[in-house]
Every structure is written in C-alpha cells, then in structure tokens.
Specification:
Layout lengths: L1 H10 L14 H9 L7 E4 L4 H13 L4 E4 H19 L8 E5 L7 H7 L4 E5 L9 H4 L5 E4 L13 E3 L5 H4 L3 H8 L9 H14 L14 H13 L11
Parallel strand pairs: 1-2, 3-4, 3-5, 5-6
Length: 244
C-alpha cells in the first residue's frame, strides 16, 4: 500500500494517505470510506475481489461518498492496452480483432472497455470448456488471448497472449497517477467505462513499437493518461507537466 501512496505523491501534487483496514467486509469498508466525508476526493481500494469491490463502490456512491477506484479497475487499463498493442503488431485493426478472454468474470470491466475501444469480436472461455474447446484450437481462429485465468499453455497463442503480472503494481502504476490527476477535484463520483477506455487509448498511443506497454519512467505517461481521461469528463487536465 505504501508503494501506491509514494507513487501518487511523487508523480502528482495530490496528497495521498494510507488507510489500513482490519476487515474486508464490503459494508464495513464502505462505511469507513463514506465517513471520510468531503476531505477526500477519491479512494483507491486494494485487496478486494471483484464482487466485494463492486459492492463497496455501489454503497459508497449511494451514500454520497467519494469516488472509489478499485485495483481491478486500474488493472483493466493496461490489460486492454496490451491487447490493442498485440492487434497492432499483427496489423489487425481493432474492429477486425478477435479476442478470447479466459475467466472474464475476474475482471468484469475488461470486456466493455475492449468493446468501447473498438475491438470487434470478443469470446469468453472458462476452464470447464477445456475439453470441448481446447484453447490452442480456439486460438487458431482468434488474434489475441487475454489469459485472466492464468491457465493457458504456452503453446496456445505464442506471442499474442496477454497475462496478469505477478505483481499488479507493475501495471497499476502505469495508470493510477494520471487517472487521479484527471478525476480529482471535479466532483466525479463514478468511474465509467468511457474514462477507462480513454486511459487505454493513452497507453496504446505512447507504447513504443517494440514494447507491449509504455515504461513506467516514460515522461509522457502521466500527462497522456490525464489528458485523455480529462477530455472524456469534459475538463482540462488539472495538473501541468511540471508535476510529471
């Protein structure tokens, strides 16, 4: 948690504070966040599964609390951007792209974000499908495999598989400073698919041709994410490049 607080302090003028909790109960977490009041413009929640995280977001919004951004919300951005990058490497326009997602329920925002990003065809795959629809055979007719389940054999889609990194911070750090820079101070209460897709565009645009994603030390990273997200909510980026 301290890594994220340090990241935000170092890359934005936002004051970031840690709020450790001793429970993962969604109702308790939501009540604690609502109790922060108007002193806080956004809360980044770590360590909850997608169902509990969604419950916290819903309760906080209904209770008039601050914007809640979850770890899976942020992780969705680099996963989607990497998917776009793989399509680009294969000279496949997103609208013609065919993407398979394993266990899509693990990151429920990913499919809507890919659709909003222009990906033309999405298929879901679950481990129970392995016997009837082996991944290797399925990928003979698809372009990119997003392996959220972490179960795909290396031979299923070599060179065109997007996976969840062992350390989520490595991906989250690409997005969080710019996203918070765009949303804080504008009364935003809900993170929309459109804002997440805007962040995806930002990462995809600045990714070098020989990389899957931009580097964390890319000097354009924070400003690019902030600029694209800000345009989506109808505001200019609140922080200038001097803070990057």
């Amino acid at each position: 948690m301290e890594d994220y607080a340090t990241l935000i302090r170092d890359r934005t003028p936002i004051r970031a504070l840690r709020l450790p909790l001793t429970t993962g109960d969604p109702h308790t977490v939501a009540d604690r966040i609502i109790g922060l009041g108007s002193r806080v413009c956004a809360v980044f929640v770590l360590g909850l599964g997608h169902t509990d995280a969604a419950s916290v977001q819903r309760e906080v919004e209904e209770g008039g609390g601050p914007l809640v951004i979850t770890e899976l919300d942020v992780l969705t951005v680099p996963l989607a951007a990497a998917t776009i990058t793989v399509l680009r490497r294969r000279s496949v326009p997103p609208r013609a792209g065919r993407v398979v997602i394993t266990n899509p329920q693990w990151a429920p925002l990913l499919a809507p974000v890919l659709i909003t990003s222009g990906v033309g065809d999405l298929s879901s795959w679950h481990e129970r499908d392995a016997e009837a629809f082996p991944l290797r055979r399925l990928m003979e007719h698809n372009d990119v495999l997003v392996d959220l389940a972490g179960c795909a054999p290396e031979t299923a889609a070599p060179g065109r598989t997007v996976v969840v990194p062992p350390d989520l911070y490595a991906y989250d750090a690409l997005v969080l400073p710019g996203l918070l820079s765009a949303l804080c101070g504008h009364g935003v209460r809900r993170l929309t698919v459109e804002v997440v897709a805007a962040c995806v565009r930002a990462l995809a645009l600045i990714t070098p041709a020989d990389q899957m994603l931009p580097s964390l030390d890319d000097r354009l990273l924070v400003s690019a994410v902030a600029r694209h997200a800000s345009r989506t909510i109808g505001h200019a980026p609140p922080f200038s490049n001097q803070h990057q």
